[in-house]
Amino acid sequence: MAAAAPSWSLLPNARSVNDWRWWSLAAVPAFIALTLLLQMPSLLSVVVDGSAEAWRGTFVIYVTCWVFWIAIGPPLFWFFCRYPLDGGSITTKLALHFAAALAFVLIHTGMHAAIDTAGWFEPGTPIGTRYRTLLSSSAGLELIVFVMIDGAFHAVRYAVRARQSADRERELTHLKTRAELEALRRRLEPHFLFNALNSLCAMLPEGDQARQMAMRISDYLRIVLDRASSEKVPLREELAIVRSYLEIEEIRHGDRLDTSFSVDRKALDAQTPVMVLQPLVENAVRFATAGGASPARVMLKAQRQGDRLALTVSNSFRSDDGDLSGQGWGHAIIRERLTANYCDDADFRIETENGQFVVHVELPYEPHLACERPA
Amino acid sequence: MTGEERIRVLVADDEPLSLGLAVRTIGLDPRLEVVHACGDGNEALEALSAGDVDVALLDIRMPGIDGLTLARLQARAQQGPEIVFATAYGEHALEAFELGVCDYVTKPYEPERLRRAMLRAASQRRLKQHGASVRPIDRLLVRSRLGTQLIPFDQIEAVDADEKEVWLRVGTRRLRYQNTISAMELMLPCPPFVRVHRSFIVNLDHIGAWNDASNGTGGLVLTGGGEIPISRRYRRRLSSLFLGMR
After folding, report:
1. What is the Cα–Cα distance from A125 to A136, expressed in whole angstroms?
2. Smaller CB count within 10 Å for chain B: N or C?
């Protein structure tokens, strides 16, 4: 999501890359570095010489160069922001930039010709002569400098734009998911659905197994419908979804399914991407029960280890079965979600050990801020 | 109100099946009594004017006067009943809390959940009627070899039961207390206290790890050390409380 950037930051953001004032400020350190680089020969001679006189002279030269750059910078960046190379006719833009390059060379050289702190010329040399001499000797270098600045400007601009459009794309996907969930909610008519389930409960005596099932189904539906369509939820919410799902499976499979949860309290408030555990557990139940082992075992572990959150979902399978091809169902999507959320900071591993199929997920531990919910 | 007197409940729901279910569910608790069963909001409003209701269980969506309007009208009345909302989908939860409504249950509800809501609303009403003179109990007076001491509830990590008495786990100590575990369950507020076994009550705030198991071998590890078993019967309630569901 596009984070709200502070209005004045040295780091570029979507707004500042189109603002010549930001560029003029941000370029100051770059200009200082550029001057140091261009005037390296005189700096080296001072280091060799070492006298106070030489240091003072060099200092004056540097300050002059910086003042020139600081004077030229703002109009230059105003021009780049006003007439960037992209958009409009490229030939016109190129011609404009070429003209600007010429103007830059003429003006910058003119400044140096007018104020010669470097002592390139004999005192009393007419300004016209100085100008011509400087132009013929350094116009090429000045042109290259212009191209460098122009190039740097556009490189930064494109980088920021690319990141911005990636952010926007992610935001759009998120909005789309939310809209889909909202549409689903409307189509399901939760009021009608839960009232109908309540009527079903009314027809069955307390403690009846069918009534239990109706209750569990409504719990599951409610938690899925209610779940904030946010990207991340505290682990306790994700576990609540998993639990209400497992309660249905436990009724369905009876004693043939053994489930266990082992949850560290310190892990409960950890942020987790929503719907990462649920599909893993669903998968585990499907394979454990299909394997024919009795009872089929599904285990979930959540632990906080320092600044990491370790989640493990494991299930039993018949070792003579050998065919685990289907077990990886949905894993690609989960890997993708983890990468999207944590880049390389999340770990996803699969192991098979002693008749157990084990999926390890490891995330950085991020505490979830207290959610607003009436007590 | 003496222990003999039952809590008088009004139920309003426009759906006959749903109304019947609520009346039956509440009627199964000897401490509760349904005095009015109303098929719509207007009927409920009329019944409420009799002034013999402690707790009103109102469906939110009803033809005529809906539950929210009824609650708004009752909020103005002095000595009005405590209101508990019933709704199929909890979209009005926030509005309900703004109206000072005591609780709300979502349909379909666990029978126990509904009865607990009624009892809690009734004790809320009692507190209001007696003003500041009655404070909710938040500590226990325990006599031991070392003398008599007051133990605040939040220091009690768990309670386990013998035949006639219970033991309170407080830090490294185990204190004997003359009471039955069922009475303790009623006395200690839930949450954070929750019954997890025929002979154990645990304080959710002192749980370090939760090991749930469908085959009845699950248990809780207390932050102060020690393990408490979870029985199948209480497993579901514990997991929903531990995971912060209602």
Report:
1. 16
2. N
* Percent of residues, chain A, with pLDDT higher than 90: 12
How many interchain CB pairs under 8 A, A with B? Answer: 102
* Min Cα separation A257/chain B (Å): 8
* Residue the block writes with tokens 């400087």: A134
Coil/strand/helix, residue B90 = helix
Residue A3 pLDDT grade (very low, low, confident, very high; cuts 50, 70, 90)? very low
B158-161 vs B200-203, strand pairing mode: antiparallel
Average pLDDT over residues A173-199: 82
Burial of residue A112 (CB within 10 Å: 0-12, 13-18, 19+) is buried
pLDDT given at position B4? 59
Amino acid symbol at B170: V
Q: Band the pLDDT of A194: cuts 50, 70, 90.
A: very high
CB contact under 8 A, A202 and B209: no
What secondary structure, in 3-state letters, does chain A show? Answer: CCCCCCCCCCCCCCCHHHCHHHHHHHHHHHHHHHHHHHCHHHHHHHHHHCCHHHHHHHHHHHHHHHHHHHHHHHHHHHHHHHCCCCCCCHHHHHHHHHHHHHHHHHHHHHHHHHCCCCCCCCCCCCHHHHHHHHHHHHHHHHHHHHHHHHHHHHHHHHHHHHHHHHHHHHHHHHHHHHHHHHHHHHHHCHHHHHHHHHHHHHCCCCCCHHHHHHHHHHHHHHHHHHCCCCCEEEHHHHHHHHHHHHHHHHHHHHHHEEEEEEEEHHHCCEEEECCCHHHHHHHHHHHHHHCCCCCEEEEEEEEEECCEEEEEEEEECCCCCCCCHHHHCCHHHHHHHHHHHHCCCCEEEEEEECCEEEEEEEEECCECCCCCCCC
| B218 contacts on A by Cβ (under 8 Å) | 260
What separation, in Å, do the N-terminal and C-terminal C-alpha atoms of chain B show? 29
Confidence tier at B145 by pLDDT (50, 70, 90): confident
Interface predicted TM-score (ipTM): 0.82
**Chain A residues closer than 8 Å to B213 by CB:** 258-261
Q: Is the pLDDT of residue A375 over 80?
A: no
The alpha-carbon gap from B166 to the nearest alpha carbon of chain A, in Å, equals 27
B185-239: per-residue pLDDT in tens? 877 877 888 888 888 999 988 888 898 888 888 888 988 888 889 988 888 888 8
Q: What b/e sequence results for B103-128 when a residue is b if at least 16 CB atoms lie within 10 Å of its CB, and e otherwise?
A: bbbbbbbbbebbbebbbbbbebbeee
pLDDT for A5: 43
Contacts 24+ apart (CB under 8 A), A50-59: A57/A119
A211 alpha carbon, distance to own chain's centre? 47
> Each residue of B100-133: pLDDT tens digit?
777 888 889 989 889 988 988 888 888 777 765 5
- The alpha carbon of residue B212 is apart from the nearest alpha carbon of chain A, in Å, by 5
- Give chain A's length: 375
How far does CA A348 lie from the centroid of its chain? 20
